[in-house]
Recover the amino acids of this structure.
């Protein structure tokens, strides 16, 4: 979906109002006197270890047949409305069972059907992983959310004023990395694998969009800069930190940070962008997204992440509650967007969209239910988000009590 009219064919640029939150409030709650031993960069007491979570089990059995019929109808309606070629979808409800389905085709030209075990680009859902890593490091006292960016990454305008929290909640005001110079490099070599340093270099020395903390604009640069912070603090590459802290403990064997799309296991979905009313197949170059959007995952791993993200199993309870402080935004499509995740109708999670794919991963605290939707279409003529629309339709079926 294109959210920036000046970059009409760059669907991964998403600009919208974001979270308003007091950095001091979030930091003080993360460093309460009961947190344990250790000292963070602001001198506050914190625990020395991160919460450890194991892979949550899926509900046993299948959802009631009547509910499955309604869920299938809701999915088919959304796919027909937006002419989505293919989708992989899962709904899991504790105490009732699960429903997973593969619909349509992964590759229109090849006639390859979608399967439930395919690996999909999850785009901006990656942001929820990256911000979780930052919050883990804050919980451990390895950094402070009030640290300014220039402590870790020099050269960003207002970097001596932008806090890590303002990057995480999209209120930093820093320039995005996608500019004419970046586009020229990419268009000259569409297969070029960009490094994180190359992505972040596009934001260095650029005019700020606004003063830190005075507005809220959702940009990939915010999260990619946090990726660089993670590497600086840990002394390890982003993908290794991600694996050690999240993917391995959760058994996410089908999930990876993949900047070289040639390593994408086949058969896999092809992404389609609607251009002039026609769905055009796109060649994948996930390296253009970095820690803001370069992750790939499976439906089952999506279920695990929905539950882990929604429950805050990898964070201190206070940190999880405070990361939920959100505000109204225009886009991406949430009721509120908070710190690396958003909420819609009581469901917490994250959406992803760009270059032919949309994704939605959400968890409902009151029921423990999870919904995951992966689709291979983006940039619809009406600027809708097909996976988010499908998530909303499936959530509405659950809330209607159709299983009773």
């Amino acid at each position: 979906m294109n959210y920036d009219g000046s970059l009409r064919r760059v669907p991964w640029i998403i600009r919208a109002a974001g979270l308003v939150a007091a950095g001091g409030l979030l930091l003080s709650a993360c460093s309460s006197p009961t947190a344990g031993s250790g000292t963070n960069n602001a001198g506050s007491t914190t625990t020395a270890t991160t919460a450890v979570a194991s892979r949550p089990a899926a509900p046993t059995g299948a959802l009631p047949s009547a509910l499955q019929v309604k869920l299938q109808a809701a999915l088919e309606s959304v796919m027909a409305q937006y002419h989505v070629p293919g989708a992989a979808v899962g709904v899991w409800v504790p105490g009732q069972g699960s429903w997973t389905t593969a619909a349509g085709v992964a590759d229109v030209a090849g006639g390859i059907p979608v399967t439930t075990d395919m690996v999909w680009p999850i785009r901006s859902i990656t942001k929820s992983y990256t911000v979780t890593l930052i919050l883990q490091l804050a919980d451990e006292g390895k950094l402070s959310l009030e640290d300014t960016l220039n402590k870790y990454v020099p050269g960003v305008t207002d970097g001596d004023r932008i806090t890590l929290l303002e990057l995480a909640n999209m209120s930093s005001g820093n320039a995005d990395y996608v500019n004419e110079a970046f586009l020229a490099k990419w268009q000259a070599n569409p297969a070029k694998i960009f490094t994180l340093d190359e992505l972040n270099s596009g934001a260095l020395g650029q005019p700020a969009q606004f003063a830190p903390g005075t507005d809220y604009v959702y940009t990939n640069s915010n999260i990619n800069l946090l990726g660089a912070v993670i590497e600086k603090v840990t002394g390890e590459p982003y993908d290794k930190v991600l694996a050690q802290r999240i993917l391995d403990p959760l058994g996410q064997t089908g999930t990876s940070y993949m900047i070289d799309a040639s390593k994408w296991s086949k058969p896999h979905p092809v992404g389609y962008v609607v251009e002039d009313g026609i769905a055009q197949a796109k060649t994948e170059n996930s390296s253009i997204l970095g820690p803001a959007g370069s992750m790939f995952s499976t439906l089952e791993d999506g279920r695990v992440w929905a539950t882990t993200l929604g429950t805050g199993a990898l964070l201190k309870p206070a940190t999880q509650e405070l990361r939920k402080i959100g505000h109204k935004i225009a886009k991406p499509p949430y009721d509120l967007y908070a710190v690396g995740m958003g909420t819609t109708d009581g469901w917490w999670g994250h959406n992803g969209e760009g270059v032919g794919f949309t994704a939605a991963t959400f968890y409902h605290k009151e029921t423990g239910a999870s919904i995951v939707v992966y689709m291979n279409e983006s940039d619809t003529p009406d600027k809708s988000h097909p996976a988010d629309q499908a998530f909303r339709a499936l959530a509405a079926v659950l809330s209607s009590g159709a299983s009773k």
User: Anything to note?
Assistant: The chain has one domain: 62-399. Residues 65-82 form the longest helix (18 residues). Residues 1-48 have pLDDT under 50 and may be disordered. The two ends are 37 Å apart (CA to CA).
